[in-house]
Amino acid sequence: xxxxxxxxxxxxxxxxxxxxxxxxxxxxxxxxxxxxxxxxxxxxxxxxxxxxxxxxxxxxxxxxxxxxxxxxxxxxxxxxxxxxxxxxxxxxxxxxxxxxxxxxxxxxxxxxxxxxxxxxxxxxxxxxxxxxxxxxxxxxxxxxxxxxxxxxxxxxxxxxxxxxxxxxxxxxxxxxx
Length: 177
Prior knowledge:
The protein is mainly beta and 177 residues long.
């Protein structure tokens, strides 16, 4: 593979991934901590899921992950409508994560659902809209209920297995298993 990256001032534009595994790269030359890029994954299988009225959203996704033994994967998309939505979002700039939890009730549209599955555990974010509230979103939590239908696509991947371990700030961070 040929890789080419460009720089402008102190900013480094990341333009390549390594198929050999972990490739630490700094998004900005002034950044003290590099980010990690995990290569070598391939899409093994794609699952398309339909949820109907009253079905629990996250709980149904977790059931598919367990049933299909998806240890590593990607929640590619999810759209539909919900009658109840529970989620959390970051609420401070403190060094350790502090989240605020929300439950919204009434008819709303699920505009987007996506995330990463590592060691069989999903980390999923969503974007919703509700008349009078506008768009909102965050980290999907248990307790969301489908209004009419939700359609989800999940890709099962193979390659170097990933997991989340707590970093120095106490935040679960993606890394090689």
